[in-house]
């Protein structure tokens, strides 16, 4: 996971650098990690959730900024995303969420009702996730900046001592599980902008993932290798990062990957791959083969996890790649997301 | 510190709600605390640094967003502020900074060199403060939004077990100490905008405050009641909050308050009170009288603390007010900051 071989030569920052795909990874690994983390005495990776030893207690710590447009969309809102996104980064680190902070960058002129509604949505999401918001900050910028509201949340969680998650532990033969249908969030937000003449009965999948992780840990801790919520960049980007970091191949069975018809239809019209679309309430788990059945059953027993499936496995080759096998015998490689087809999705 | 008596009726958010003064306090206590914290099961105050019990370890946790304009100014930059601001909120909670996260909201079109320079400034500030940046996030918004760059940092720190800081512990007779001259940061940033035909040989006071707190704790822990870095809203707002929360009077000796001539001059021209100007590297300490000398000496022994002074004391009346005594015998009340004379200062 060293960043030594990545260089960032782009003269200025573009939207694609925030899309969570290849350009984001170059920005983070080629610029921010060497300058900010390594030079500052931090770890050699800007992670979603970092591990911190706090007086002998193993904590996970994470932070995310949210700039989604519009502020509200079917099934969710920026406030709900801001809580669930940070709760989920902790959960993917094997940590029970403990406390969050929330900071608001507010555009002058924002209706108080909108801010109140977002704060209430955050409180509700926090209660649902079993975590308290303990502090924060508010800044106001001039009208015309900030699209109404940007929210940043940070969180800490207690790492379950039974888990030890890392791409380095992933081995050929390990099974790849997926918690449910993909692409709902990205397509929902895109449709909510009303820029396309498309309608679909679709809602964001935003939800807290800790209950699933808690069940997984109870059922399959010794076999649990790696967890990731495939947000920006989608499943393809998350698994390409895994393939690269673990120096393995991830082989997916196309037929096994759940995609709702509305998402598949929108993707076909837009020329997008559902594997590149952002999710906010699904996760990928890589599990040792002997624990795969127990892990899958554990996820399915949690309300909302009924749609969990095995979608593929880890192989030795083609190393550092994600291969999708079609039910008709062919196969194709899927890369990380390139460019930013759906900006400002979270 | 209950928010029960505050209501927020303003129909929309204005710049003054982000200024750190009276309007900010109404927004936080009248809207965000009841909706977000109390309803979410959190504490009854949206604090700068909150205390969290993490598996038996007492942590402080804090987060701040930074939207300062311009991104660089004499003596500092948004990156340096973002590290020191969060480190200082932890220090004011009596906590040794342990780990930070940093998230960036970047305007498309920002020069990579600018981002690189800010990341490097952050790394340097983190090293100086003895804390590591362990994770983060980047989002990109369209050109025309975000003024180049907004940075949010969150931090956790280990609370020194010898301290127990709270406005509730402040008693009449306690002494008020100030670490050095006030107003440098706010006036420096205002002058750096070049909107006023004023020049001054002034630099921001941004710096990490933990070394001073560490020395204070060693020298005077049992007498240490309350600490605060008077950022937005300045010394007057911080002390009015103390007076209100502790139900006491804070009586300041005007002559004792250090203000550089350049700051005093700019304030006179602008019709501002130096007591309302933001600082980023000074702090106020309230100390039991028998520990005041030891505390002052401890601050002065730390490099950069030579200018620390006793500026006043706590009295019983006029309750919930800050009174400034002139050397010529008169006295006047100074309120919290009202409005936002210097927006986007941090």
Overview of this protein structure:
2 copies of one chain form a homodimer. Chain A has helices at 22-38, 78-92, 112-129, 184-192, 210-220, 234-246, 261-270, 292-301; strands spanning 49-54, 57-66, 72-73, 76-77, 95-107, 132-141, 149-159, 175-178, 224-228, 249-253, 284-287, 309-315, 321-325, 331-333. In chain A, 30% of the residues lie in helices and 25% in strands. The model of chain A has no long low-confidence stretch (mean pLDDT 94). A 7-stranded mixed beta sheet of chain A has the order 9-11-8-12-10-13-14. In chain A, strands 1-2-7-5-6 form a 5-stranded mixed beta sheet, with helices on one face. The first copy, chain A, is globular. Chain A is of the alpha+beta class and 346 residues long. Chains A and B meet through helix 1, strand 1, strand 2, strand 5 and helix 3 of A and helix 1, strand 1, strand 2, strand 5 and helix 3 of B.
List the helices and strands and how they pair.
The structure is a homodimer of 346-residue chains.
Chain A: H1 22-38, E1 49-54, E2 57-66, E3 72-73, E4 76-77, H2 78-92, E5 95-107, H3 112-129, E6 132-141, E7 149-159, E8 175-178, H4 184-192, H5 210-220, E9 224-228, H6 234-246, E10 249-253, H7 261-270, E11 284-287, H8 292-301, E12 309-315, E13 321-325, E14 331-333
Parallel strand pairs in A: 5-6, 10-13
Antiparallel strand pairs in A: 1-2, 2-7, 3-4, 5-7, 8-11, 8-12, 9-11, 10-12, 13-14
